[in-house]
């Protein structure tokens, strides 16, 4: 695998071929700073890294609509490596994927890259397999063929002036007329800077076992001997699903009450999830901007959150939005 990839502006193929659909712009530049400030305020002091990852995965797609798929890998001390805590656009699995700290894939999590050719992408998702030589992971079995992949580590500058990688955001594109651009790269860098601070401040991560049950794992090494047990590490590739029977799991098996929404509230919520502004939603639904804002306020209150992005993340978590 090539470790150093030069970051160069990606041409928008829709400009070369006018017959192709226009590229979706995502959050407008004028609103970008406001949305990032909102995200930073919401993520500040969130205890569960999974909540942060869910929020960031949705925000990544809203910032960069060319990202058909988003995966967020986060370093979790309690699992001995990186846990894939945020996923958008890819199939979901019952258990959390874990990447061992000493594995080949963990080294790739720490690299920045922008892959544009099938060979480069194949190398990214291929790992050593003792039984079968090189093995292709993840994507083709899902019926997905990437056109490009953009990866960005989440880095924290420590007091010794060394960068510490706390995770990574990977974006996958499989829509031919929407390649990544230099602007997408810039937006991803801004997002990872905010996300890195939030993950570094998180206390624990909710990890799902292969049977769908949840456990909590500490984000950092504790100052006393309280190591939590985790999955068997027999897979040298470092990619596996959690299967943990630890008695220290702190299972989260309480019932969650789903609020009731009117049809109009659900319509507004879906359009918010699509990244539309209040004015755009008003034009789409033939209602006033003030009415949209009223519905948004009601949605935030019912979902118990303080921002539109958090509302979308919570609604997806509850199954209100697919």
TrEMBL record:
Q: Which CDD domains match?
A: LuxR_C_like
Spell out the Gene3D superfamilies in the cross-references.
3.30.450.40, Winged helix-like DNA-binding domain superfamily/Winged helix DNA-binding domain
Any one of the GO BP annotations? regulation of DNA-templated transcription
Q: Where is the composition biased (Basic and acidic residues)?
A: 229-244
Asked if the record carries the keyword Transcription, the reply is: yes
Domain HTH luxR-type: start-end pairs: 254-319
Q: Where is this region: Disordered?
A: 1-25, 229-249
| GO molecular function, a single term | DNA binding
Q: Give the source's domain of life in one word.
A: Bacteria
- Alphabetized InterPro entries for the sequence: GAF-like_dom_sf (IPR029016), Sig_transdc_resp-reg_C-effctor (IPR016032), Tscrpt_reg_LuxR_C (IPR000792), WH-like_DNA-bd_sf (IPR036388)
Q: Which SMART domains match?
A: HTH_LUXR
* Sorted UniProt keywords: DNA-binding, Transcription, Transcription regulation
- Please give the Pfam families that the UniProt record associates with this protein: GerE
> Known PROSITE patterns for this protein?
HTH_LUXR_1, HTH_LUXR_2
Q: Which SUPFAM superfamilies does the entry link to?
A: C-terminal effector domain of the bipartite response regulators, GAF domain-like
Q: What is this protein called?
A: Helix-turn-helix transcriptional regulator
Q: Identify the taxonomic lineage of the organism of origin.
A: Bacteria, Bacillati, Actinomycetota, Actinomycetes, Bifidobacteriales
């Amino acid at each position: 695998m090539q470790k150093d990839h030069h970051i160069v502006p990606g041409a928008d193929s829709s400009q070369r071929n006018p017959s192709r659909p226009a590229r979706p712009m995502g959050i407008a530049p004028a609103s970008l700073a406001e949305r990032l400030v909102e995200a930073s305020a919401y993520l500040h002091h969130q205890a569960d890294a999974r909540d942060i990852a869910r929020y960031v995965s949705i925000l990544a797609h809203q910032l960069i609509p060319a990202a058909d798929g988003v995966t967020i890998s986060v370093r979790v001390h309690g699992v001995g490596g990186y846990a894939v805590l945020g996923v958008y656009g890819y199939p979901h699995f019952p258990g959390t994927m874990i990447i061992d700290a000493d594995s080949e894939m963990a080294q790739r999590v720490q690299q920045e890259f922008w892959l544009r050719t099938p060979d480069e992408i194949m190398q990214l998702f291929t790992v050593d397999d003792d039984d079968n030589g090189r093995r292709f992971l993840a994507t083709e079995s899902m019926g997905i063929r990437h056109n490009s992949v953009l990866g960005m580590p989440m880095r924290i500058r420590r007091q010794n002036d060394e960068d510490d990688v706390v995770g990574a955001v990977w974006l996958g594109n499989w829509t031919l007329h929407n390649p990544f651009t230099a602007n997408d790269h810039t937006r991803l860098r801004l997002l990872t800077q905010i996300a890195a601070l939030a993950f570094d401040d998180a206390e624990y991560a909710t990890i799902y076992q292969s049977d769908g049950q949840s456990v909590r794992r500490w984000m950092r090494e504790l100052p006393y001997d309280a190591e939590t047990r985790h999955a068997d590490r027999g897979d040298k590739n470092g990619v596996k699903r959690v299967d943990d029977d630890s008695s220290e799991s702190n299972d989260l098996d309480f019932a969650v009450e789903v609020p009731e929404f009117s049809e109009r509230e659900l319509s507004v919520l879906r359009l918010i999830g699509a990244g539309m502004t209040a004015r755009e939603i008003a034009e789409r639904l033939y209602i006033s901007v003030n009415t949209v804002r009223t519905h948004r306020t009601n949605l935030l209150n019912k979902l118990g959150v303080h921002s539109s992005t958090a509302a979308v993340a919570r609604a997806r978590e509850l199954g209100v939005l697919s």
